[in-house]
Amino acid sequence: MHLILFILFAGLAIAGALNMLLQKHPINSALSLIVVMTSLAVLYLMLGAEFLAAAQVIVYAGAIMVLFTFVVMLLNAGREERTLGSKASWSVGFPAAVAILAIIASVILKAQGLGNAMLGDKITSTEQVSAVLFKELVLPFEVTSVLVLIAILGAVALARRGDGEERKDRR
Amino acid sequence: MTLDLLHLMPTDLFRILPEVVLTITGVLIMLVDASLPPHVDRRNLGWLAALGTVFALLASQAQLALLQLAERTGFYGTVETSTFSIFFHVLICGIVLVTLLIALDTLPENGHHKGEFFALITFGAVGMCLLTSAVELLVVFIALEISSIATYVLAGYRKENGRGPEAAIKYFLLGSFATGFFLYGIAMVFGATGSTVISEIATRVHTGGHPGLILLALGLMLVGILFKVSAAPFHIWTPDVYEGAPSPVVALMSTAPKAAAFALLIRILYGAFPALQPIWTPLLWLVAVLSMTVGNLAALRQHNVKRMLAYSSIAHAGYLIAAFAGAGNTGITAACFYTAAYASMNVGAFAVVTLISGYEDELPLIKDFRGVLYRTPVLGGALIFFLISLIGIPFTGGFFGKFFSFTTAMGGGAVWLVLIGLLNSGLAAAYYLRLIVSIAQKPEGESPVPPVAQPIGVAVSAALMLAIAATLVLGIAPGEVLKNAAEGAYELMPHSMQMVNSLVFF
Amino acid sequence: MIPLSWYLILSAVLFTLGVTGFLVKRNLITVFMSIELMLNAVNLSFVTFAHLWDPVKGQVFVFFVMMVAAAEAAVGLAIIISVFRARATLAVDQIDLMKL
User: Fold this and answer.
1) Inter-chain CB pairs, A–C, below 8 Å
2) What is the ipTM, given to two decimal places?
3) Structural domain count, chain A
4) Residues 65..94 of A with a Cβ closer than 8 Å to C: which?
């Protein structure tokens, strides 16, 4: 059962990621990325991370990717063109990626004693997560508010037109 | 379940007092900015930000009282107050203060989202300060992101001219890419040791764990941090971003986030992975040589002053990293001192460049700087002074920075590294001299173009004075700063690895 | 029963696909999506290692990564919009006012 679920959703995740890579239109890439994210949510559930599985769907698939698709639509982004640059980057990017994967995978496979995962093993409840979040990690939690504030401030400062441009528009 | 927030000690709050002061300042700026009518000039918000930064600086000084306590960490072991963190807090607050003063007089008059600009700088400073005192990788990560996101946005502040957004997108994409690697490194170190607290990682690395995963973690984290300090081969973004970003912002981002990132590099290498020193020393050796050589060779070919200074900053990252070849805590001492010296001269150089080229970079090229010394002797003289310090001529901070860095590397046995460094310093003198000659040449031909900013404002003169004073003090009487850096280094090192001062500087 | 290393390999594969996407995609938005994919891959590693060591600590870390990713997305997309306004293009090859 566990194996079937793993193969199914790991396969979905990889297929989604590959599709994101190969699709030419940004909106198709965005939709494939949502497939990856939701299958990851199932994998989190299999690893006992209930809260994260929910947060993954809500925050990533729900909020972040909606923002992405919204911007794709807003800017009316079209298909990518095959350019000289894209050929050059495939010839550089592909070997680089294979090298990175080879290094990481060999290290992981060599590491001993990583253990196994059982379905329904070590389930973490939201209560346990919140206990740590609001006690031991209260400082990072509070500091994140500065991060969010800075993100809002930055997005406003960048996306809002300057006064000079506004005057031009009004004419 | 009781909410343990109320059980925190007042000392816990004291440990993050500079950050709290900066956050309150930022929030105040946002509130005032929102309540002012739209066409009122926001310049005075800059003074508010500068005032807040001064208070933050004083708060960091006051934290020295915390060193009397037996406990060094607060907030359940996530932040640490030590001479090391206070050293960098004071340095970063100083840089931010100087940058704010530069921005006060050089930001264009109307409609430039000035309120947001000052608020972003103060909030960014929160992240940079926190980065130097964080001892838990989660806090490190969030602080790094705060300082990065603030600089991404500030880099794109000149939206009208096309280069601003381009600089921002390049910086953002490459920066987030590097963050991905850094984060993967944290995941690996968590996987290998089961902890994200730096001191616990050090003990578990020492006792074994998964050696392969630990090495991989070290490599991935180094990629992330070396990107932030723009060391070769992770420097590609630097010249473009420095060219496209407004000069006051470059003054900030070439110094303050870099100082914070160097603090992080020191903490990760010496705090978390001291057991792996034989492995990372040669790696950094290589990075140092690459950064110096690539930076200096590329700088020789530049015609744009900001691009030249960008490549020079890559080279300086190399000189700084050379200090890591030094043995034990002497390496940390030299690196801390170099950070301070580099920050004071670079922030000053960019202050003058802002005044001469203008906020919109009307005069960006080296040949545009011709005759500046005759038109405005003060600016020309100040720029020549900072360039002399960047070359590393005695009686300036740059000289002692290089001197300590190379002598510690020598003490660590890296003779070749020092030789390459000295050769590079000679090479670097060539392009700095080219700019100096251009400045000092008599203006020729038709009526020369005056520097853009005239007359020089009060705030920016104060900024220049501060930068010149800092560079001079570091060059003439480095003893006090060096003593603080050495104390910080002493506290940082695990006591088993302590070197009894093998190099006595003064 | 599944070895945890399988999850880690999956995470490494996804990370690499993200890196590849970053290097080969020619549209600013999809390049940024590749970065999101990398972050997701890292999150999977965190959850897996959390299963191995301290479940709560690792999972809280992922929670924070999500928050950071959301903040990054807001800023990144704002930057992309400002690039599009200034240059009227999203093609990576045309963002070349300043040569490397």
Assistant:
1) 244
2) 0.95
3) 2
4) 67-68, 71-72, 74-75, 77, 80-81, 83-86, 89-90, 92-94
Closest Cα to residue B243, out of B353, B89, B104, B389? B353
Q: What's the CATH number where A108 sits?
A: 1.20.120.1200
pLDDT tens digit sequence for B464-491: 999 999 999 999 988 888 888 888 888 8
- Residue A96: what residue type? A
* Same domain membership, residue A122 and residue A154: no
Instruction: Give yes or no for residue B261 having a pLDDT over 50.
Output: yes
Question: Domain check: are A77 and A89 in the same one?
Answer: yes
Is the alpha carbon torsion for B105, B110, B111, B116 positive or negative?
A: positive
Class of the CATH-defined domain C4-94: mainly alpha
Cα–Cα separations (whole angstroms), residue C76 to A71, B156, B168, B229, B257: 11, 11, 9, 21, 19
User: Where exactly are the structural domains of chain B?
Assistant: 11-497
Examine the domain organization and report whether A107 and A71 are in the same domain: yes
A13-34 pLDDT per residue, tens: 999 999 999 988 999 999 999 9
Kindly report whether the peptide bond that precedes residue B494 is cis, defined as omega within 30 degrees of 0. no
Q: Which residues of B touch C (CB under 8 A)?
A: 138, 141-142, 145, 149, 152-153, 156, 159-170, 172-173, 176-177, 180, 183-184, 186-188, 190-191, 194-196, 236, 239-240, 243-244
A19: exposed, middle or buried (Cβ count in 10 Å: 0-12, 13-18, 19+): middle
**Listed residue (B284, B486, B471) closest to B396, CA to CA:** B471
pLDDT in tens, B264-309: 999 999 889 988 888 899 999 999 999 999 999 999 999 999 999 9
Query: Is the Cβ–Cβ distance between B263 and B131 less than 8 Å?
Result: yes
* Contact (CB<8Å) C38/B184: yes
Domain that holds residue A150: 137-171
Tell me the residue type at C71. A
**What pLDDT sits at residue A169?**
42
d(CA C26, CA A98): 20
Q: Are residues A88 and A157 in the same domain?
A: no
DSSP SS3 for B209: coil
Q: Does C93 touch chain A (CB under 8 A)?
A: yes
Ramachandran assignment for B297, one of left (phi > 0), alpha (psi -120 to 50 degrees), beta (any other): alpha
